[in-house]
Amino acid sequence: MRISTALSLFLFCFSSALADSASGDSKKLYKPKDAECTITSPYSENFFDLNKLKRTPGAAPPQMDWQVKGLDYGANFSINICAPVLADTSKVEGIDEAGRANVGAYYEKNGTIYSIGSVSTTPQFRGRKLILAYENGSPCPNAPELRKAALMSLMCDHEQFHKPSIAFVGQFNDCAYFFEVRTAAACPTLNQAQALGPGAVFGAIMGVFVLVYLIGGIFYQRTVMHARGWRQIPHYHAWAATLNFFWVRLFVAPILFILRILSFITCGRLGSSGRRSTSIRRSSSSIEQAGWKRHDEWA
Ligand SMILES: *[C@@H]1O[C@H](CO)[C@@H](O)[C@H](O)[C@H]1NC(C)=O
Ligand SMILES: *[C@@H]1O[C@H](CO)[C@@H](O)[C@H](O)[C@H]1NC(C)=O
């Protein structure tokens, strides 16, 4: 009776834990914050990872900032995504020491380097548009209290897999700059951190299967067969025989085998000492009493 109480308590706890993890609400409660330079769309739950667009210093072969032609603007732009530009920004116009390490995009005109924004690692969704905004660049020429800023619109383009195609769309008052970034990195992907792998899905299905088998089987054994104690477990005799088989094969037989080798080595060297051989014989006969009839296999 105590066994069945413990078993039903265990099954109750196990099934409620399973129900907790399976309920849809927990997904919202424990949803991890998006990692740097990634975002989950609030509309489609699609996952976007812009880390592939990040240029890193010290990479082999050496990398450069993304180069964007300014065309009629009269200057070209250098941009990094989710990381500060790799180029030297120690002489950038109107930015303090700390800000110089965080320049995300710049251009050079008439020998002066102008920042068009500090780096941001948090892409955003405006409606269905994936955007990345850099702010706090060099002071705007006509309004020194304002600072240059750049707005990038990221668009999914499977053709742009190895590098993005960045186009300068336009600017206003040498203060606000707009870019269009076509890249495969802006195409939705599966979030590796949140998605269940095939192994986990298989494990969950197997777990449910075992649970249904146990609960259904115990219910049947109790109510129809009027079984009590351990016999409530479905196919109790088959499971017990299987367990016994593995117990003997995996534990008892190897231990016995090692004991026999040890006794062979020690007795062979010392000459057969009566005390050791009787102890071995006693242990093997006790195994025999425990239900193992294959003793002759080792003789
Ligand atoms: C911008 O780059 C192009 C080549 O990529 C070059 O021909 C042009 O002179 C550059 N413009 C400026 C203002 O440096
Ligand atoms: C370039 O800068 C110098 C001073 O540094 C200035 O005299 C000159 O007018 C500037 N040229 C242009 C085209 O802005």
Present the secondary structure layout.
Elements: H1 2-22, H2 25-29, E1 38-40, E2 47-49, E3 66-68, E4 77-79, H3 97-100, E5 105-109, E6 112-115, E7 124-126, E8 129-134, E9 139-140, E10 143-147, E11 149-156, E12 165-172, E13 176-183, H4 198-223, H5 236-270, H6 274-289
Parallel strand pairs: 11-13
Antiparallel strand pairs: 1-2, 3-4, 4-5, 5-6, 7-8, 8-11, 9-10, 12-13
The chain binds 2-acetamido-2-deoxy-beta-D-glucopyranose (NAG) (2 copies).
Overview of the molecule:
With 299 residues, this protein is α+β, with helices and mostly antiparallel strands. It contains six helices and 13 strands. The protein has helices at residues 2-22, 25-29, 97-100, 198-223, 236-270, 274-289; strands at 38-40, 47-49, 66-68, 77-79, 105-109, 112-115, 124-126, 129-134, 139-140, 143-147, 149-156, 165-172, 176-183. The longest helix is centred in the C-terminal third of the chain and has 35 residues, at 236-270. It binds 2-acetamido-2-deoxy-beta-D-glucopyranose (2 copies). One of its GO terms (biological process) is vacuolar transport. The chain crosses the membrane at residues 200-220, 241-262. Keywords: Disulfide bond, Glycoprotein, Membrane, Receptor, Signal, Transmembrane, Transmembrane helix, Transport. Residues 35-189 form the MRH domain.
